[in-house]
């Protein structure tokens, strides 16, 4: 340990990669940046770029994330980079049901409920979009309606474009097509709780207290910050 309250060591072949852990009043950081000004500057410039989640990852970082999440639909070697943006919106869903009146005549009943619906795009950057499309078809990730069913958010559309393959909801955020940094930013959103109604009081408080999760990679430098909303007590005493 050279700095911080602890250190995370990852054994990579014969080398041990060390990542100091820092605890502040409202966040926890794991980073080997040394000087974190570049990371925090990038975060401050992009913290308002999304209402929920945004990411840009090259091939190396895609492999890291897919191993952590134990998913393989983005692990194909012909994927060079991805850009994703996700917003959460509350929409009104119409429910149509049928009943019978006292004379056994069928009557239609219409009711409405509020649901949370993600609006998103995933831009896959590849120079071999035909081969990648074939791979998705072989894995049965694409159905007959050209929907990508490897992710749990539907309905959506999958199509080919100039830079590769695009997966998006019917309404989606703006596409930037800018692969200059490797980062993930996930912000807390009040609509998250309405999607997890079965969560107990303790779990709901933990979700409410969280502010954002930020990941940044530049070459061999990594920066991870888990931030919480400002409170009277510092994080270590909560």
Short recap of the structure:
By secondary structure, the protein is an alpha+beta fold. The protein has helices at residues 37-46, 59-69, 129-138, 191-195, 201-209; strands at 6-12, 15-23, 27-31, 53-58, 81-100, 106-125, 157-161, 164-168, 182-187, 210-218, 221-228. The protein has five helices and eleven strands.
What does this structure look like?
The protein has 238 residues and is an alpha+beta fold. It is built from five helices and eleven strands, in the order βββαβαββαβββααββ. An eleven-stranded antiparallel beta sheet has the order 1-2-3-11-10-9-4-5-6-8-7. The longest helix is centred in the first third of the chain and has 11 residues. It is globular. The mean pLDDT is 86.
């Amino acid at each position: 340990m050279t700095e911080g309250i602890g250190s995370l060591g990852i054994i990579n072949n014969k080398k041990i990669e060390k990542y100091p852990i820092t605890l502040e009043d409202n966040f926890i950081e794991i980073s080997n940046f040394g000087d974190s000004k570049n990371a925090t500057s990038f975060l401050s410039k992009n913290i308002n770029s999304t209402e929920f989640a945004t990411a840009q990852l090259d091939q190396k970082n895609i492999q890291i994330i897919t191993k952590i999440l134990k998913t393989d639909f983005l692990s194909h070697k012909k994927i060079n980079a991805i850009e994703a943006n996700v917003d959460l919106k509350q929409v009104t869903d119409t429910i149509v049901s049928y009943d019978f009146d006292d004379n056994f005549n069928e009557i239609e009943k219409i009711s409405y409920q509020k649901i949370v619906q993600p609006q998103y795009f995933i831009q896959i950057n590849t120079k071999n979009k035909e081969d990648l499309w074939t791979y998705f078809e072989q894995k049965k990730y694409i159905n007959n309606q050209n929907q990508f069913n490897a992710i749990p958010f539907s309905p959506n559309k999958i199509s080919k474009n100039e830079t590769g393959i695009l997966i998006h909801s019917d309404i989606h955020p703006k596409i930037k097509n800018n692969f200059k940094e490797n980062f993930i930013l996930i912000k807390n959103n009040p609509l998250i709780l309405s999607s997890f109604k079965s969560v107990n009081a303790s779990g709901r408080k933990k979700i409410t207290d969280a502010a954002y999760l930020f990941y940044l990679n530049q070459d061999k430098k990594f920066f991870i910050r888990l931030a919480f909303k400002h409170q009277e007590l510092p994080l270590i005493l909560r």
